[in-house]
């Protein structure tokens, strides 16, 4: 299947095999790039999809070729029963590769149980290794908690382990300390361009070209294999380092052509693009008594639309403030 890209050039669409589940819109942190100062009104209990409903949805997706499921949030580890949910996903008939994106602050106590339940990989968001900057970025978070989570992830053997960092000018724009982690630990540090809300692009945005140039002052960066198959990041490595450095550039590069993912939010909205505004109300369909076949048909049509139309990224890359916040969509 082909679709037209910017400039009129035709390009093959990536095969969609990846589903991101935003399990909850709640979070124990309030990062300045993700949530407004006074937070976001949470979904009610009734609005949120139950674990069994997510599992039913995942079963249908798996039979359509989705083989990778990433659990995200809000913060997935604040939702009660998370270990049992991972076990539920691991017992879906078709084998799934199950991963999680977390801020890591609650991972210290849960890592072992999550691994035993079937979780294989984690991405941990740590925006600075300097306590004060971490606290500013997360509006009050404690760096030691996140580092305890990272150490537990290494100890229990999650692999690969990626550290995600959103770079903001004037806040945490010195990437060198985090990059040096790749010499000390088997982790892959990924620098993510800030996707602007509220038109704050001018104030905080740092392109990954700029971040990469700063890192090249530490040492030569050689192109490297992705530690986990295809994805949005470009990887490099310092000679002799244990881990790689990744750059995820949703703003400055044309990311959409390689997008292989679907997203479902905690209130059950299925989106084929991070920038899609409303999504398909899967929860309503499931609660209306849909059969596995009905659900498959909804997902198939969404996949077909994604192949046909591609993404919905706004031209200036700025997400209108009245749309969903990242904490609801799951990044
Ligand atoms: N709470 C978990 C965490 O922080 O990893 C999972 C949810 S968070 C929404 C998922 C990812 O989205 C994180 O890596 C976070 O850094 C990223 N993210 C949030 N807001 C962003 C923004 N405005 N621009 C770029 N990335 C963002
Ligand atoms: Fe919470 Fe993650 Fe958003 Fe930070 S980035 S506020 S940890 S959901």
Describe this structure in words.
The chain is of the alpha/beta class and 331 residues long. The chain has a domain at 22-105 and 261-331. It is built from 11 helices and 14 strands. It has helices at residues 51-62, 82-90, 107-117, 131-138, 143-156, 176-184, 201-204, 208-215, 282-287, 292-309, 326-329; strands spanning 2-4, 10-12, 18-22, 68-72, 97-102, 121-125, 161-167, 187-193, 222-223, 234-237, 245-248, 261-264, 269-271, 280-281. It is globular and about 55 Å long. The protein starts with a strand and ends with a helix. Mean pLDDT is 89; it is low at 1-11. The structure holds S-adenosylmethionine and iron/sulfur cluster (SF4).
> What structural class should be given to the helix and strand makeup?
alpha/beta
Q: Taking strands numbered 1, 2, ... along the chain, how are they ordered across the largest sheet?
A: 9-10-11-8-7-6-5-4-3-12-13-14
> So how many helices?
11
Helix/strand order: EEEHEHEHEHHEHEHHEEEEEEHHH
Contiguous low-pLDDT stretches (5 residues minimum) are 1-11
Overall form: globular
The amount of beta strand, in percent, is: 15-25%
Largest sheet report: 12 strands, mixed
Question: Which ligands occur here?
Answer: S-adenosylmethionine, iron/sulfur cluster
Number of strands: 14
Mean pLDDT: 89
Q: Termini separation (Å)?
A: 26 Å
Helix amount, in percent?
25-40%
């Amino acid at each position: 299947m082909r679709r037209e890209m910017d400039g009129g050039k035709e390009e093959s669409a990536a095969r969609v095999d990846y589903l991101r589940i935003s399990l909850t819109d709640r979070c124990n942190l309030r990062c300045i790039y993700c949530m407004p100062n006074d937070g976001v009104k949470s979904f009610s209990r009734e609005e949120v999809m139950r674990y069994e409903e997510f599992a039913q949805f995942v079963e249908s997706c798996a039979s359509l070729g989705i083989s990778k499921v990433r659990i995200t949030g809000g913060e997935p580890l604040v939702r009660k029963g998370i270990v049992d949910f991972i076990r539920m996903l691991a017992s879906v008939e078709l084998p799934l590769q199950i991963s999680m994106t977390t801020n890591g602050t609650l991972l210290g106590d849960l890592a072992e149980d999550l691994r035993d339940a079937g979780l294989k990989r984690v991405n941990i968001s740590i925006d600075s290794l300097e306590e004060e900057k971490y606290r500013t970025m997360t509006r009050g978070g404690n760096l030691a908690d996140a580092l305890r989570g990272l150490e537990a992830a290494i100890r229990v053997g999650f692999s690969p382990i990626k550290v995600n960092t959103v770079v903001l000018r004037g806040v945490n724009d010195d990437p060198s300390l985090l990059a040096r982690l790749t010499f000390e630990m088997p982790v892959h540090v990924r620098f993510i361009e800030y996707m602007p809300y509220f038109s704050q692009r001018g104030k905080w945005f740092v392109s990954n070209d700029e971040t990469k140039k700063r890192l090249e002052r530490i040492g030569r960066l050689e192109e490297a294999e992705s530690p986990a198959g295809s994805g949005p990041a470009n990887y490099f490595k310092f000679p002799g380092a244990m881990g790689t450095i990744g750059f995820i550039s949703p703003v400055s590069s044309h990311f959409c052509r390689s997008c292989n993912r679907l997203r479902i939010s905690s209130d059950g909205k299925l989106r084929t693009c991070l920038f899609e505004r409303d999504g398909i109300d899967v929860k309503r369909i499931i609660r209306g008594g849909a059969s596995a076949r009905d659900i498959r048909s909804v997902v198939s049509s969404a996949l077909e639309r994604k192949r046909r139309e591609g993404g919905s990224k706004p031209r200036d890359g700025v997400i209108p403030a009245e749309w969903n916040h990242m904490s609801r969509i799951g990044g």
